[in-house]
Prior knowledge:
The chain is of the alpha/beta class. The strands form four sheets. An eight-stranded mixed sheet has the order 12-11-10-13-14-15-16-17, sandwiched between helices.
Amino acid sequence: xxxxxxxxxxxxxxxxxxxxxxxxxxxxxxxxxxxxxxxxxxxxxxxxxxxxxxxxxxxxxxxxxxxxxxxxxxxxxxxxxxxxxxxxxxxxxxxxxxxxxxxxxxxxxxxxxxxxxxxxxxxxxxxxxxxxxxxxxxxxxxxxxxxxxxxxxxxxxxxxxxxxxxxxxxxxxxxxxxxxxxxxxxxxxxxxxxxxxxxxxxxxxxxxxxxxxxxxxxxxxxxxxxxxxxxxxxxxxxxxxxxxxxxxxxxxxxxxxxxxxxxxxxxxxxxxxxxxxxxxxxxxxxxxxxxxxxxxxxxxxxxxxxxxxxxxxxxxxxxxxxxxxxxxxxxxxxxxxxxxxxxxxxxxxxxxxxxxxxxxxxxxxxxxxxxxxxxxxxxxxxxxxxxxxxxxxxxxxxxxxxxxxxxxxxxxxxxxxxxxxxxxxxxxxxxxxxxxxxxxxxxxxxxxxxxxxxxxxxxxxxxxxxxxxxxxxxxxxxxxxxxxxxxxxxxxxxxxxxxxxxxxxxxxxxxxxxxxxxxxxxxxxxxxxxxxxxxxxxxxxxxxxxxxxxxxxxxxxxxxxxxxxxxxxxxxxxxxxxxxxxxxxxxxxxxxxxxxxxxxxxxxxxxxxxxxxxxxxxxxxxxxxxxxxxxxxxxxxxxxxxxxxxxxxxxxxxxxxxxxxxxxxxxxxxxxxxxxxxxxxxxxxxxxxxxxxxxxxxxxxxxxxxxxxxxxxxxxxxxxxxxxxxxxxxxx
Length: 732
């Protein structure tokens, strides 16, 4: 089996087709480098071949490098991983440079053979870096196609020439959104940006015609010509200096200094811009390897690429027949129900959106219309698409319209009695084989299933708000939930193109079990007199998108009070009351509920924009004269979450640590650079974590006590992925 094949036409143009048989999208595998290079060598050596067109046998071009390759190279390298990764990267650079130079005379730049790329669709990562080395890029007029270099999103940066070529093609300023933010655009916008050359109906035909007519001058890259000047100026040019100084400030402002890939990319760009092209490639390769060997990047690749992809492809799906959802009933047309209806209709499902009044149901459907109108203004949605999506949503008060649904998602008021009543009413109407799911965020699924006569078909599907933006969906198995219900939920999540995690039932499940202690610890420290700016900035310096103070204002104090009261009722005397409760209940009494009330930890203007921390808070809870050490604050914020993740694994709530890591990053933004709580523990080591637990427990109390599992692993020198990872499970 080969990934690349070549066919030489009567016109002398070789069509090289990339088609990885066992993948839905092409990825560049380690062995395929040699295959492609052999074909390029044949093109360059055969006088009967005039040039080549590189294209794909799929409706996309390529999705990038198979990142498992990098792990394999490291594993095979023994004590010299840096050298092995550098050699592999430089091998790729030399090969792409061979395509770029195409056999031309090094002095005259003449005598080379034209090589073009024809992209039928999406081209990302190495799937774009490879075409960038060819002499002209033709792309199909496919508005759904994405063109870009998104490597920064998984903790690395474009290291196969993409960084160096982008900087030289468009200058550092224009390149920065694509390199530092992983911006992806459609073909027409890629052409406007100067990334590709032509957008046509038939890219292979256009590329072939170009190859037949290309001259020596057409195939020489600007940086290989005498007198080349970098767009925007070199780093030592006045304009270039300002660009790079600004880029450095932007990177540190956006990342708070916690993402090594962004710093490495900027270094590769800055240093590479001051030297000849081939030297710049070597600099890029060195920084690329530097990032690959950083444990942060390895953890991000593991969680945000390998683990995430495995979960999306059904790594933990029960072995039951396909459960694709055709028609879904959504009970409750509030913000959550409206969002669920939107993403379901967007995925092509018919939706029945139910509420107690027609006005409320219509308002829920209008949420989708507003969303689509915004998309039309941005040119992302056509009038036909809007009409078709809205036609799929039936907003009604009539429960009988649920008679032919195959999935129910209940999103009514968070009250056991209300949910039980709806369960009984709806189960009397829906088909016997329909699955009933509750979108609860805290109420145990096993308890809610008591109202059901089909407990094996009852499951939890917990969405995060806003539904259309958040990537994670938490699926909760009750004690009697059957495998078909799990499969149905997973297949539904796949259809709406989100990432699922499957957990077992316990109060707060997994995500809220970890999020709530994070918020509470921040509120507790604020009540103890720790400065609120210190709390928020301490969290942001760890990579959290927002600090606990800002987060509680976004989620609201009355929600926190409601959760606290419900937990007190459930736990009784065992409830660990703290100053966090004093703060929460006092803020509710004061009417400072958060952003929604335009008054909380922050002051807000009439439009709801934050104006600064409310000074009245410290009149009630005075600031400490001596503020705590930054690291101590950060450890309190990290450990209250990480220890809950370990306890969730210990209690069987989590069955797969991959779900714990991916769920933490996508669900509440847990330090993405760390790869998630279990990856972070593997980076710092169980022994260090256990020792720090003891110190925190002695100073702050039992919530920091080291779980028995973590203590055992510390004593044995184990890692979580070494003991619980997929390879360990497979070996067992």
